[in-house]
Design a protein that fits this description.
The complex is a heterodimer of chains A (109) and B (120). Chain A is built from no helices and eleven strands. In chain B, strands 2, 4, 5, 6, 9, 10 and 11 form a seven-stranded mixed β-sheet that branches. Chain B has no helices and eleven strands. Chain B is 0% helix and 51% strand. Chain B starts with a strand and ends with a strand. Chain B has 120 residues and is an all-beta fold. The radius of gyration of chain B is 13 Å and the shape is globular. The chains are: A mainly beta (109), B mainly beta (120). The interface between A and B is medium-sized, with 24 and 23 residues.
């Protein structure tokens, strides 16, 4: 079973600044990693898949990188609507196995 | 417009059953794998089950294997999740989600969720 760890659990950043969120896997997931954004009371929204490919309609300020066991989601210039919880998800053994990380809360500083 | 709408949630006693539905529109339903993901109150996301586009293959996460059943009716563009032998730790918002690309392991779109509360 692959376990994902996200850091930090809580990240406080000012609007207009850059945010960097990390996701570490217990073993290599070979860039089979996605990122989701979830706002309170809403469903998750796919941002990134394949570690670095933006999903349809996702703004260019969101970017993903990484390989092996270490992955990063970067939001280049935070907008007010970006403050949310962010989850990483691995799908290296899909189908059918997949797991989500515990999430990082991105809050306004 | 891609749209998934869940229904069927509610309050149920431990040991009880529920059947969740997910109505799909805006895409060719019978060409995509579909799944269920849940989120306990204040907690993270947990993948539960996936079904292939034609409905012939189903896979389950260990916590729900043998208790939950995923199915689909492609003639009605609807996904189902039968929940049996419910426990208090099954209390969660249940989301249906489509594979982004046919059978991919990442999901878009998601429904708005339906709340299942298991309590005596």
């Amino acid at each position: 079973e692959i376990v994902l760890t996200q850091s930090p659990p809580l990240l406080s950043v000012s609007p207009g600044e850059r945010a960097t969120l990390s996701c570490r896997a217990s073993q290599s997931v070979s860039t089979n990693l996605a990122w989701y954004q979830q706002k309170p009371g809403q469903a998750p929204r796919l941002l990134i898949y394949g570690a670095s490919t933006r999903a349809t309609g996702i703004p260019a300020r969101f970017s993903g990188s990484g390989s092996g066991t270490e992955y990063t989601l970067t939001i280049s210039s935070l907008q007010s609507e970006d403050f949310a919880v962010y989850y990483c998800q691995e799908y290296d053994n899909w189908p059918p196995w997949s797991s989500f990380g515990p999430g990082t809360i991105l809050e306004i500083k | 417009q891609l749209l998934l709408v869940e229904s069927g949630g509610g309050v149920v006693q431990p040991g009880g059953s529920l059947r969740l539905s997910c109505a799909a529109s805006g895409f060719v339903f019978n060409t995509y794998a579909m799944q269920w993901v849940r989120q306990a109150p204040g907690k993270g996301l947990e993948w539960l089950a996936v079904i292939s586009s034609g409905g012939t293959d189903q896979y389950y996460a260990d916590p729900v294997k043998g208790r939950f059943t995923i199915s689909r009716d492609n003639s009605k563009n609807t996904l189902f999740l039968q929940l049996n032998s419910l426990r208090s730790d099954d209390t969660a918002v249940y989301y249906c989600a489509r594979s982004y690309d046919l059978w991919s392991g990442y999901f878009f779109p998601w429904g708005q969720g339906t709340l299942v509360s298991v309590s005596s």
